[in-house]
Design a protein that fits this description.
Number of helices: 3
Structural class: alpha/beta
Bound molecules: 1-O-pyrophosphono-5-O-phosphono-alpha-D-ribofuranose
Strand content: 25-35%
Largest sheet: 6 strands, mixed
Radius of gyration: 16 Å
Order of helices and strands: EHEHEEEHEEEE
């Protein structure tokens, strides 16, 4: 599998300790607050699974699915909720769990949408961020790694639904797009 990628950006051995660090920070920051972690499907599933298993305080999980009206590799900022949360988040401490923040448009929409439901707080944990692509500034309290402006796949991230199951994160060569 590895040969077909331009470059492996993050090995499993680099991802694991960083996820543990973020989990430790969340466990410290949210002690006594019973946070609700909201996984944004599908890309964040592995980050969510690994992160929550490293969190050492009581917490809950919920899932949302959203779809951007933009093209496959470029989001437009117009977001449709395909699957909403199962429960109300009023007075809850919410942590949105994302795999990647690219333009920031999806997250900006999500933050606004969840903030309007009167939670106690809303913060963001993202494994990856592409700062050079940002169109809107969205505060992310927990960030794993900066990645260059390349098409990245693996550890939940896909290209046309493929490669999500890679244990590492790699850049797909231009020719493959
Ligand atoms: C990705 C990612 C974020 C969004 C980031 O989701 O999970 O939700 O794009 O892009 P933005 O910052 O430019 O808005 P995608 O639409 O690829 O869906 P998926 O997680 O199901 O693969």
């Amino acid at each position: 599998m590895r040969e077909q990628f331009e470059e492996v950006l993050l090995e499993e051995e680099q991802i694991r300790p960083r996820v543990s660090e973020i989990a430790a920070r969340i466990s410290h920051d949210y002690e006594g607050k019973d946070p609700l972690l909201v996984c944004v499907l599908k890309g964040a599933v592995f980050f969510m699974a690994d992160l929550t298993r490293e969190i050492t305080i009581p917490c809950e999980m919920d899932f949302m699915a959203v779809s951007s009206y933009g093209t496959a590799s470029d989001s437009s900022g117009v977001v449709r909720i395909l699957k909403d949360l199962d429960a109300t988040i009023e007075d809850r401490h919410v942590i949105i769990v994302e795999d990647i923040v690219d333009t920031g448009l999806t997250l900006s929409y999500l933050r606004k949408s969840l903030s309007a439901r009167n939670p106690a707080s809303v913060e963001v944990a993202t494994l990856l961020t592409k700062p050079t692509r940002r169109k809107v500034d969205v505060p992310c309290l927990y960030e794993g790694f900066d990645v260059p402006d390349k098409f990245v796949v693996g550890y939940g991230l896909d290209y046309q639904e493929r490669y999500r199951n890679l244990r590492f994160i790699a850049a797909l060569p231009e020719g493959k797009l």
